[in-house]
Amino acid sequence: MQVKQIYRLGYWFIFTVLMAALMASSFPSFFQAWITALFFLPSVVALQYGWEKCAEADPGPRRVIRIIFWALLTLYLSYMALLGSYWYFLELQPDQFDLTWVNPVFIWTTLGFFVGLEWFLFKKGEPQEPETITIFSNRKKTVLEIDRIAYVESRGDFTVAFLGDGSEYKNNVKISQWQERLDGFLRIHRSFLVNPEMTVLHGSAVTVNGRWELPVSRGYKKKVKEYFD
Q1: Torsion over CA of 91, 93, 97 and 101, rounded to 10 degrees?
Q2: In this predicted model, what pLDDT tens digit does every residue of 126-154 receive, in sequence order?
Q3: Are the C-beta atoms of residues 16 and 34 closer than 8 Å to each other?
Q4: Are 41 and 16 in contact (CB under 8 A)?
Q5: How far apart are CA 128 and CA 125, in angstroms?
Q6: What's the start-to-end Cα distance of the chain, in Å?
Q7: At what angle do helices 41-56 and 30-39 cross, to 10 degrees?
Q8: Which of 19, 64, 100, 130 has the most beta carbons within 10 angstroms of its beta carbon?
Q9: Contact 55, 66 (CB under 8 A)
Q10: What are the tens digits of pLDDT across the range 27-59?
């Protein structure tokens, strides 16, 4: 196990101890409070995963829906943790339980603080794994790094993905499907979808990665010009 992973496990152990300390006044023993803190770990996992998914979504209704979904799921798992402890350890005695813990804002703030701190300590600055796309080319499964794709060309019944190094991958994915899957790529023609990070506009044509010159069709000209202005 890598040293960083050991540190992260230690961090979440400290999280359970601190959570137990916060809840200690509501339980007969510190051990019971610590067990309850362990029950919060699924909520932490949901919040971490949801955080990443929300960050990946484009700004707009989809991101808002994801935020609401993951916030409610985190809250639900937290309430299940509290309810289980309330029933098992406190035998449903309301006078022994601090109602602060049922406040959703308090739960989100507390868990959010620890998840954010963990990201700052362990994940900030980590090299991100390249995004990939999987296709079938030459009858075999092929994984391409999206950042390396220069452009995609439609050739009737099939398309060809060109990488920056000049390699080509023939496949049966329609160019419209490529456009849906390659977020951020720019359609310049009914037959061409380009990586704008590798593209320079020259009048009514573009140069991709300094080696391919592709035409910009009349229907896409305005959109392409606005993008590069």
Answers
A1: 70
A2: 566 778 899 999 889 999 999 999 999 99
A3: yes
A4: yes
A5: 9
A6: 49
A7: 30
A8: 19
A9: no
A10: 888 999 999 999 999 999 999 989 888 876 666
Cα 140 to Cα 66, 131, 136, 143, 171, distances in angstroms: 35, 20, 5, 10, 10
* Amino acid at residue number 43: S
Task: Tell me the DSSP string of 34-94.
Answer: HHHHHHTHHHHHHHHHHHHHHHHSPTTHHHHHHHHHHHHHHHHHHHHHHHHHHHHTSTT-G
Q: Left if phi > 0, otherwise alpha if psi is -120 to 50, otherwise beta: which for 220?
A: alpha
Helices (H), 89-217: 104-118, 175-181
Residues in the chain: 229
Q: What angle do CA 111, 105, 118 make, to 5 degrees?
A: 20
The residues pairing with 137 across neighbouring beta strands, listed in sequence order, are 140
Could you state, in order of their start, the residue ranges of all structural domains in the chain? Answer: 3-123, 132-228
- Residue 219 CA to residue 222 CA, distance in Å, equals 7
DSSP 218: H
Residue 63 CA, chain-centre distance (Å), reads 11
CA count, 13 A, side-chain hemisphere, 119: 13
pLDDT in tens, 75-109: 999 999 988 888 888 776 656 666 777 889 999 99
**Which residue bears the tokens 């289980």?**
84
Q: Which residues contact 209 (CB under 8 A, 6 or more apart)?
A: 150, 164, 198, 199
| One-letter amino acid of 182 | L
